[in-house]
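User: I'm preparing a small set of examples for a lab meeting where we compare how different chains pack in three dimensions. I only have the primary sequence for this one, and I'd like the structure in token form so I can line it up with the others. Please keep the answer compact; I'll paste it straight into my notes.
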Amino acid sequence: MNTQSSSPAAGIAGASLPFRLWTPEERKASLDQALQHWQSGEDVWVYGYGSLVWRPDFDFMERRLATLRGHHRALCLWSRVNRGTPECPGLVFGLDRGGSCRGVVYRLAGGQVPTYFPALWEREMSTGAYLPRWINCTTDAGPVRALVFIMNRDNPAYIRALPEAELLAIVRRAAGRYGPCTDYVVQTAQALRAAGIHDARLDAIARRLELDGRPLPEGG
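Assistant: Understood. Below is the structure token output for the 220-residue chain.
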């Protein structure tokens, strides 16, 4: 059961939540479980909805626009390393329950899976906040079964939808090892627009950040 608050203190509360990076052994166990039915040499599809749209970090044979049903893109995950710190966490995208999401799918050559997937797991599963699942996605060229990282609502880093003003305040304040949280949100929105994907709520948030990038005062 989620007990996170949507009050103005949510940003402060986020900094006090339990935080632990997964060990290499935990990541390997998760990867092995996800690939337990994979046949060596078989091509795989990977679904991207956030930074994977503009920075996949792997070579791919094919890229298609795709629709995932049953989940939607949301800034619902506290980030304490990549786009924030334990003391001042940022927010990154997760696939939360309900609705649908327009993104992209990448086809990776089967021979590259052992090379690319450990790095993908280190990137996406550093804290175990996502649940790797194989889910059917719709594309113009037909359905594909793709690896999708959906939000684990039982993870302490999950946060329910916040009022827009509070969400903007958190994003503007935070920065991590990959840079400001603002850049992450804006780059994702720009990449989706470039791909012809319309996300009205994200566009509204990104345009506010693009027009007014001034950091808000602490607690603002």
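A couple of notes for your slides: The chain has one domain: 24-212. The helical segments are 10-15, 24-34, 51-54, 113-124, 164-173, 181-194, 200-211.

User: Perfect, thanks.
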